């Protein structure tokens, strides 16, 4: 499936596949960087939460999506496992943008994109693929009242990040073509 711009075709389906792949690559990179520390630090009091779910919290934190934490009778609160005294390195914030820029660049190169409007349409495909996995993961990463905040997860991780950084990658493709 593709979208026509003038006499050119922008590959929407390819963009969606690349967007989904970018989301998975981003998660895997965060998993590789953080999983050992998560097992040692974050989960030592909540041993029944799988490491892959806690890594998901950090992955969403890398999109500036906070984690909602159930505090029992005290209610709930939000926070991030990135930054601060005991948090993970703030370098994790560059993982989603870099992976999405690479995705937009790949779609741009594949579709031979050479106009800014085409870059935006190519990024729309990236958004579709990325958003689908974000929606699934927002529910998969919930555990015992703790998980990514749903509304900001959809907005930031699912829409804003892939649209902005996928477009940047597509624009880079128009310059480097």
Question: Can you offer a commentary on this structure?
Answer:
61% of the residues lie in helices and 9% in strands. It is mostly helical and 177 residues long. Helix 1 (12-40) crosses helix 4 (116-140). The longest helix has 29 residues, at 12-40.
Please tag this protein with its features:
single chain, 177 residues, mainly alpha, three-stranded antiparallel beta sheet, two-stranded antiparallel sheet
SSE blueprint and pairings:
Elements (H helix, E strand, L loop, with lengths): L2 E3 L2 E3 L1 H29 L10 H11 L5 E4 L5 E4 L15 H16 L5 H25 L6 E2 L1 H27 L1
Antiparallel strand pairs: 1-2, 3-4, 3-5
Helix pairs in contact: 1-2, 1-3, 1-4, 3-4, 3-5, 4-5
Short summary:
This protein has 177 residues and is mainly alpha-helical. It contains five helices and five strands.
Count of runs of 4 or more consecutive helical residues:
5
Structural class by helix and strand composition: mainly alpha
Helix content: 55-70%
Strand content: 5-15%
Radius of gyration: 17 Å
The total count of strands amounts to 5
Low-confidence stretches: none
Mean pLDDT across the residues is 87
Strand order of the largest sheet: 4-3-5
Terminal CA distance: 22 Å
The main β sheet shows up as: 3 strands, antiparallel
Shape from CA axes? elongated
- One letter per element, helices H and strands E, the order comes to EEHHEEHHEH
């Amino acid at each position: 499936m593709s979208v026509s711009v003038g006499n050119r075709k922008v590959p929407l389906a390819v963009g969606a596949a690349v967007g989904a792949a970018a989301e998975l690559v981003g998660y895997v990179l965060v998993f590789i960087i953080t999983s050992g520390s998560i097992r040692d630090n974050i989960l030592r009091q909540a041993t029944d939460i799988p490491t892959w779910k806690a890594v998901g919290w950090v992955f969403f934190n890398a999109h500036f999506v906070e984690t909602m934490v159930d505090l029992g009778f005290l209610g709930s609160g939000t926070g991030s496992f990135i930054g601060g005294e005991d948090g993970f390195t703030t370098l994790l914030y560059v993982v989603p943008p870099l992976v999405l820029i690479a995705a937009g660049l790949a779609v741009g190169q594949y579709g031979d994109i050479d106009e800014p409007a085409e870059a935006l349409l190519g990024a729309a495909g990236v958004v579709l693929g990325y958003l689908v996995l974000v929606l699934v993961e927002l529910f998969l990463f919930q555990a015992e009242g703790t998980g990514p905040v749903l509304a900001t997860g959809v907005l930031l991780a699912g829409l804003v990040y892939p649209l902005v950084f996928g477009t940047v990658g597509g624009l880079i493709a128009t310059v480097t073509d």
